[in-house]
Amino acid sequence: MSAPYPKGDEASGMPQPGGQPPPYGQPQPGGPPPPGQPIAMQPVAGGGAPPAGWMQAPSGPANCPPGLEYLTQIDQLLVKQKMEAIEAFTGFETNNKYEIRNTMGQRVYMAVEDTCCCTRNCCGSARPFDIKVMDNHKKEVMHLERPLRCTSCLCFCCLQKLEVQAPPGTVVGYVRQACSCFHPRYKINNAQDETVLRIKGPCCRCNICGDIEFEVTSADESTHVGQISKQWSGLAKEIFTDADNFGVTFPLDMDVKTKATMLGAVFLIDFMYFEHDEGDIKKEASHLK
To answer: Which pTM value belongs to this model?
Structure first.
């Protein structure tokens, strides 16, 4: 029986096919430490200790794209969008910035949108974008690219797409919006554009004081694999800013390229469903008066 998701063999001591990863906080003898924690006594890429607050990089195996070795030891990520004061007070759309952390609160990556001012403020949340994902040396290890398309969930030519490159210039996967009338649906595809996972969101994106969950399943939708959740961050922040927090969970032994593509899905979902345009913020604020 084939695995419900692509598995990786990037690190020694990883769970074997059919096995279970060790419980969180209980390292397996001879295996990796608990997910999300830095590996002790491992050299850092480029030499020296990582900056304060950053996760220490494990040594990367030969078949792991450079920069993705962090993901071999992680089964959970927190994607936290940084709140820009000028955007909150003026509605002027700035380039989005994100911190990507592990379960210990250590930074794993920084992500920065690279879009021109005209595109940001004319196209709003429907804009095409490039996002650079960088490590603690400010080296770009992933590149995410969303082309410009009309927003429609029913017309095939308008379905959204995100290309994930790791390292930049090498495609490792795609996130494709699937045709759906009620529930938001996406496909996680590999570099050959073959579907390996599916994402299904709720029919309603409004969940007052609660998280909004997108379930990740196997390609045939028979097995639960992971989850992407938009986390509630407080009434004022939800209404007056577009700074969002997301949690991502996936199996520890999942292939790092698939993990990277799942991470890319967070940004596409954020822009499509949770990125407020200036008019939306003013309209929601007026409802509170």
So the answer is: 0.76
